[in-house]
Amino acid sequence: MDKSIGIVGAGVAGLQLGLWLRQHDIPATIITDRTPEDHRDMRLMNTVAHHNVTLQREHALGIDAWDDDEVHYVCHHHYFGGPQPLRFRGDFKAPSRAVDYRIYLPELMRLFEARGGTIEYRQIAAEDVAGLAGRFDLVVVSTGKGPLGQMFEHRPEMSPYDRPQRMLCVGLYSGVAPSEPRGVTLSVSPGQGELIEIPTLTFGGMATALLFENIPGGDLEVLASLSYDEDRQGFLQTVLEKLEQHHPTVFDRVDASRFDLCGPADLLQGAIVPTVRSSLHALDDETWAIALGDAHVLMDPVVGQGANMASHAAQILAEEIIAQDVFDARFCEIVDARRTDRILSALRWTNAMLAPPPPILLELIGTMAGNQALADEFTDNFNYPERQWDHIASPGRIRAWIDAAQAAGAAQHRQAV
Ligand SMILES: Cc1cc2nc3c(=O)[nH]c(=O)nc-3n(C[C@H](O)[C@H](O)[C@H](O)COP(=O)(O)OP(=O)(O)OC[C@H]3O[C@@H](n4cnc5c(N)ncnc54)[C@H](O)[C@@H]3O)c2cc1C
Q: Which backbone phi and psi does 281 adopt, to 5 degrees?
């Protein structure tokens, strides 16, 4: 059967979906408001790390421009501050990487068009979407966190927060030496927020993304509103002071004489309200719109899951479009049944990390600091949020994980002596 799919939005969700469809010769049209050239001069959008499951998907899609050990990183360096700071490392089974999306998305647009996909450049308003029903068998809305996604109903029962839990200040910086081995640093300043430091491929080569996740009302919140453009020296001085006080393992690698944003547009300040929307919207009696990526589930970036989930969901949606001939409410139910567990696990894990940590979670972190296998498993689970959530969804599950890890550690120790 001939199928024609319309995709609104050319983010990671829409573009990976389009590439999967073109791999199976299914006609796909992306309608989006930004050209590849627009990305060059845009403000930083995000600082996205793709975990290895996503890299494997990219490999299957022939996205190979960054298959380079110089871009990959292999571990997470954890730092938990407080009176008795904890430092430990967790290793991935296979590497991750981060590429500035202003480089990444135009390359995917190029591949999509080279493989027979069509891109139409224009902005779509909510009232225009129904008009697409006449042109396509299924309309996919992957317009990110913007207003268009609001055509899908908000699901308050899955969206526990009605305001941002972190005030974000994220930039691409020079003057920060990479960690050894090259990894992401996850640094926690209890009661104040987190810093995620990511080695990132930028327009100027490898640089360092510093994503400050600041608790509202805390000492670090100021970072989300300081103006770099109005007072560059003041901005950099404040960032350095906050780094030294709250995130010392990153501060230790800073060369203050070279520390600066890579460019004035390489800074993003803002906040996110984690939100789940229903995935389905009827356009007419026969045609449906389905939400994909941030338009469906929007999460805070504290554990780096939004784009990885968008990529996962794009693959599942593509597989079902390829396998099925009728794109109705039942089709959407089948897609949801396959994508929901991982995506909701990522969301719930993320939301749990935004809340004040219960004592059992602190005990888990303390156990990880002395148990390499547990630290590695926690780290590799960034690929599989449903496995992480299986272990941390309730105090009983965390207790069982700690006990199992300690028993395994003790058995290994007995074998060694
Ligand atoms: C600071 C930060 C750090 C992050 N770090 C990570 C990370 O480490 N790992 C991770 O997995 N995720 C991370 N994320 C989340 C990640 O960026 C998003 O989940 C992901 O980019 C969403 O992709 P998307 O395709 O759904 O939407 P988007 O990337 O937002 O794409 C939307 C597309 O739709 C287009 N569009 C929007 N409105 C219209 C319209 N009306 N008409 C036509 N076109 C339209 C836009 O131009 C764009 O092309 C981070 C986010 C932030 C803010």
A: -145, 125
